[in-house]
Amino acid sequence: MERAILRQAQALYAGAPWRDRLHVAGRLALCPFARLAEFVPPAGLIVDLGCGHGLFANALALESPERFVVGVEPAARKVALARAARPARGRVEFVQGDALSPPLAGPWQAALLIDVLYLFDPHRQERLLRTCADRLAPGGVLVLKEMDERPRWKARLNWLEEWLAVRVLRITLGGSAFTFRPLAEWAALCQRLGFETRVVRLDRGYYHPHGVVVGVRR
Q1: Is the dihedral of CA 92, 175, 200, 21 positive or negative?
Q2: Among candidates 49, 53, 44, 36, which has minimal Cα distance to 1?
Q3: Where are the alpha helices (DSSP H) in the chain?
Q4: Torsion of CA 180, 74, 28, 84, to 10 degrees
Q5: Residue 48: phi, psi to the nearest 5?
Q6: How far apart are CA 142 and CA 145, in angstroms?
Q7: Residue 126 belongs to domain spanning
Q8: Per-residue confidence at 34, pLDDT binned at 50, 70, 90?
Q9: pLDDT in tens, 156-205
Q10: Angle, vertex CA 53, rays to CA 48 and CA 59, nearest 5
Q11: How many domains does the chain fold into?
């Protein structure tokens, strides 16, 4: 994805409150969205679970008119802001809902989980991945972006940042504990659920230990 498209998506939030504009700008600066977009199919139904303010969903819709992107988010306020920022071109919709029980039937061409699963306990993590496996079409793509546990210094900085965002500032909805896993463990879990997987590290140039597991539904 070209950086110009991400900047176009960011500009859609010009009318949002300053705190939300700051949050969107921070996400754009700190998350490797341009690289993540390389793993998203150029066409079909793309479901972004836990889409937040909808920045990535809006950018994906801007990038390809052949995609129909649906963002699912539990926070009503974020859904309202995402809807207000929808581009005039591109097919994108936002619905309020729980990622564990997404209000959208399959088959999906892609399921996106971008920094979402760490907010769930292990049982719910597996339940959510099973839901994605069940609703993806054969050959559909799972894009599971999470933080690795290496290098340690990046993992510790990320934990502190998430603690501030979830526990102190309450920018992100979350439970009482975080459940991070090594990327290799995510890949093994996805393989057990019927995906052919590959792991790609995305943390070069970032202080976060970004990585993605890309799974293709068998």
Answers
A1: positive
A2: 36
A3: 3-11, 18-30, 33-36, 55-63, 76-84, 122-135, 152-163, 183-192
A4: 180
A5: -105, 105
A6: 10
A7: 3-217
A8: very high
A9: 988 888 777 766 556 665 555 789 999 999 999 999 999 999 999 999 99
A10: 60
A11: 1
Single-letter residue type at 112: L
Cα dihedral 119/123/129/133 (nearest 10): -160
Q: 3-class DSSP state for residue 45?
A: strand
Nearest to 195 by CA among 122, 142, 123: 142
Could you tell me the CATH number of the domain that includes residue 171? Answer: 3.40.50.150
In the block, residue with structure tokens 């929808």: 86
What average pLDDT does the structure give for the chain?
94
Residue 79's Cβ-count burial label (10 Å; 0-12, 13-18, 19+) is buried
Is residue 61 within 8 A of residue 67, CB to CB? The reply is yes
Rounded to an integer, what distance in angstroms lies between the CA atom of residue 61 and that of residue 86?
A: 9
Sequence length of the chain is 218
pTM for the model stands at 0.93
Tokens describing residue 112: 């996106």
Two structure tokens written together for 165: 């965002």
Q: What percentage of the chain carries pLDDT values higher than 90? A: 86
Q: Are strands 67-73 and 91-96 parallel, antiparallel or unpaired?
A: parallel
Q: Is 147 helix (H, G, I), strand (E, B) or coil?
A: strand
Q: How far is CA 12 from the centre of its chain?
A: 19
